[in-house]
Design a protein that fits this description.
InterPro entries: MPAB/Lcp_cat_dom (IPR018713). The protein is an all-alpha fold and 303 residues long. The chain has helices at 15-20, 25-36, 40-49, 56-69, 75-91, 108-128, 135-150, 163-173, 181-191, 210-218, 222-228, 236-251, 255-258, 264-279, and strands spanning 93-95, 102-104.
Length: 303
């Protein structure tokens, strides 16, 4: 009988499962992009090598696909997307107009910044939004995310594996961060994005997106918001209340409806994951999110 490690990269018993199935991930994902933009070289890498300005939702969905595969996918699916991402990064370069130098996109320092900005955002937003993780579980999440970092080419030992290590990393990085023109444009764009062609019919409702973008911005660390100065400060209690309300509203969506926001390939991967877990004895009648309840696990997990 197959072990759970042959079925999914991260098992339902992991802290990663708790965080990555939390619907606040949508806020955490946009917040992560805003935080990443503060690294001048990382921001220029995105600006020069992607269609982010034309399709920000595509960037978010591709990130969701990667995160999904290295969480809920099979080891083979995670290895495949890791090879694909590393291959793309290996071929890309960044021109730094400040120095005239050319840098590799897969520079370990840049990869580490992107990873830390992303996973710290997922964790902090989920916890603030009401996901009841203890300090030990939060540390466990970051320790588990070291494995995810290896898929983009980082080494386990180089990646923060606890909240204290993550805090120390950001403290070390802050002197090298600044708001470039590209970063300022990115934050404005994430709060008022251009809709992709296939979603242009939704343009009349675009003003309704701004509260979501503002919520993502308001969850940034105090020091990051001070650097940007893009919006007036909102009381912390109001931001937390907004997160709680967002999480409650999106949690009310049935899993099949919620999953329509993902790319078709991602939805197929999630469906295959449910089928494998069901065959292994997990009760998937409530979807993957239902497996955050230990009562739906086999009596002997890792069947």
């Amino acid at each position: 009988m197959r072990g759970i490690e042959d079925i999914v990269v991260q098992p339902p018993q992991s802290a990663t499962w708790q965080v990555h199935l939390d619907r606040s991930m949508w806020v955490g994902g946009v917040r992560g992009l805003m935080l990443q933009a503060l690294h001048p070289l990382a921001m220029r890498g995105v600006w020069q090598n992607s269609s982010f300005q034309d399709d920000p939702f595509g960037r978010l969905r591709r990130t969701a696909d990667f995160v999904g595969r290295v969480t809920f996918g099979s080891p083979e699916e995670a290895d495949e997307i890791g090879r694909r991402v590393r291959g793309i990064h290996r071929a890309l370069r960044i021109h730094d107009p400040d120095t005239g130098r050319t840098h590799r996109v897969d520079d370990p320092e840049l990869l580490l910044w992107v990873h830390c900005a992303e996973v710290s955002s997922y964790l902090e937003v989920a916890r603030r939004g009401g996901l009841g993780l203890t300090e030990r579980q939060a540390d466990r999440y970051l320790r588990e995310q070291r494995k995810s970092a290896t898929y983009v080419g980082l080494h386990l030992a180089d990646v923060p594996g606890s909240c204290a290590e993550m805090d120390a990393y950001f403290k070390q990085m802050r002197p090298s961060l600044r708001v470039t023109e590209e970063a300022a444009s990115t934050v404005r764009f994430l709060m008022w994005p251009r809709l992709p062609r296939e979603l242009r019919l939704l343009s009349p409702g675009k003003p309704g997106y701004f509260p979501f973008g503002a919520l993502c911005y308001s969850t940034l660390p105090d020091w990051a918001r001070r650097m940007y100065g893009a919006l007036p400060e909102v009381p912390a209690a109001a931001v937390t209340a907004g997160l709680l309300a967002f999480r409650l509203a999106v949690d009310a969506l049935p899993e099949p409806v919620h999953d329509r926001a993902f790319m078709l390939a991602t939805r197929r991967m999630l469906r295959a994951s449910r089928e494998r877990l069901g065959a292994a004895g997990y009760d998937v009648s409530k979807g993957l999110k239902g497996l955050t309840d230990p009562r739906r696990w086999p009596k002997s997990p890792a069947a």
